[in-house]
Amino acid sequence: MTSTRERILATSLELFNREGERNVSTNHIAEALGISPGNLYYHFRNKSEIVKQLFLRYQTTVEAFLQVPNDRPLTWQDKVGYFEAILQSIWGARFLHRDLGHLLNQDEELQDQYREFVAISIERGLKVYEGLRSSGLLEASDEDMKALLVNTWVMAASWAMFVQSLVPNEKRSDELDRTLLRQGIYQIVCLEGPYLRGEAREHLEAMKARYGSSEGTIGLLFGELALTTVTT
Amino acid sequence: MTSTRERILATSLELFNREGERNVSTNHIAEALGISPGNLYYHFRNKSEIVKQLFLRYQTTVEAFLQVPNDRPLTWQDKVGYFEAILQSIWGARFLHRDLGHLLNQDEELQDQYREFVAISIERGLKVYEGLRSSGLLEASDEDMKALLVNTWVMAASWAMFVQSLVPNEKRSDELDRTLLRQGIYQIVCLEGPYLRGEAREHLEAMKARYGSSEGTIGLLFGELALTTVTT
What we know:
The structure is a homodimer.
Chain A: H1 4-19, H2 26-33, H3 37-43, H4 47-65, H5 76-92, H6 94-98, H7 100-105, H8 108-134, H9 142-166, H10 174-192, H11 198-202, H12 204-211, H13 214-224
Helix pairs in contact in A: 1-2, 1-4, 4-5, 4-8, 5-10, 8-9, 9-10, 10-12, 10-13
């Protein structure tokens, strides 16, 4: 039997992802669960507490998959595993990615938490890249590898917001959102492309095709979706 | 003699950049100018109208420099020129970059305007990359060039927000902000690095050094600035 606290978190996550956090009040959440606002407040003082708890879970998920196995070298399949994990984690907490500025702006505690999360992720991400380099799947100087990691991070962290800002409300759907998030992984694969070697290089085209295409990004965002015909 | 309308725009831009748009009311703006709120409302119905006008000017600036000369091939100095122009335009309208989600969320007209701006910029950016390729400064398939352009765009558009979310309020200063924005250009130079050829390749290290270093980004964001000691 799922506890009320767990049900509040699950329902809030679902509503935030679907409607956007700023469009969902604690009253909406209580109503969706069929509980009284008082019961909800018993578990969470306010909406910020729910957001912080959901962020903590997101952080735990990400830190869990940003690991390098101790007992064997990394393979190109591991690379796909990381991409899939990134995609799932962004999709599962897309309300955070889409509206991070707003969420951080209204909560200093969340700011501190986020700062720590980014620092830890950058540190772990660097270990993953070092693991790929040791396995001969990536070739880059320390400097280029760090720049690549920062670029990969910013892309992963910003893509959902970028896409969000370009899709008109009336065209939004879960299916389109999923396709566009996959295009974000495509963009990251392209970022890494020039540095891949060995098996990872051999599977580069397959990895790209798995997530999208350049025409895909541009077509989705500026073709079908464009409201106005652009003439320059 | 500068018109009141111009003075309102200049002062608003300065205050928005310094304090953040959401912390500046039309009353603040009127007060800073020594005019009555009524006088301000005579020129702009509300703060959104001021933001939209400032966005339009930003858009005009960016579209003006995203041009390829008709009469000669592009040189690596042109590349530096584009970077400087990107840097200046982001710095000049940093309130937009830092808080874009918030600004777009509250104004559908601005959303449409932004969508058109991105579509035009992507189209022009592609022409710049094509120009660099024709001049032998860049080597990439059409597909890789489009992916590179989208990545460059997302980095340029998102960097200021990324950095903003990681610098605690009490450590913020114009000097630090400028240094961090320069690091954003460094990140873009690194993005393009593997595709550069000829003179652009020869000047790659100089271009990187002009804007920062990998240690620079990581040190600034996760070394000196980190609030907590991260242990993984």
